[in-house]
Amino acid sequence: MALHPHLNDFYNEWLSKADNYDGRQLSDYFNKAFSLFTLYNKLYAEATFELARRNVITLSNTFPDRKGATEYAPKFIGYMPLYIAITDDQNCSDCLQSLIGHISDHDFYIKLSMPYGEPQIEKDNDLVKRLNSKIPSVKVTAILDLIYSVRCNMFHGNKQFDHVQVELLSPITVILRAVIITLYAALRDEL
Fold first, then answer.
1. How far apart, in whole angstroms, are the C-alpha atoms of residue 32 and residue 15?
2. For residue 63, how far is the Cα from the chain centroid?
3. Tens digit of pLDDT for each residue in 47-99?
4. Cβ neighbours of residue 106 under 8 Å, at least 6 residues apart?
5. Which of 190, 178, 170, 176 has its CA nearest to residue 37?
């Protein structure tokens, strides 16, 4: 089965859109993140559906969004290709270390309780531990959990246009872009 042309067009258009935000304005960081999250959502949904079509996973009547983003995407790609894409690229690796430092220092709270958005420091500490893991599957899952949690905080939380968010969004978008490129390549090669 070939990759549907609409997916190619969607990928090219949204990646180009994200790449055109140059960081001259604070809103560029938010817009870049939103664009990349939109693209990642489309790609991990396609990977999830493909795994279901292959009978690797079983889907119910509701889409498993978090699982699609954090479990099914790496299951489709393979953990090692994602691990290599992130850890072998110096820019991605530096961005990950920056994020780990910010979360460790509690500059940012990633795991928030609902509906009040209260920090869950124990969960953030666990996330840092998993992000520092030398086991590829643990590290990759933690990275995707971090990305998905930031996405949820932006889409469903009360994240303000504040310059401090650049320290979070800038490195997240670098890593997310690498994940997207790796996932798209896997979809293109597999379908």
1. 9
2. 17
3. 999 999 999 999 999 999 999 999 999 999 999 999 999 999 999 999 999 99
4. 119, 121, 124
5. 176
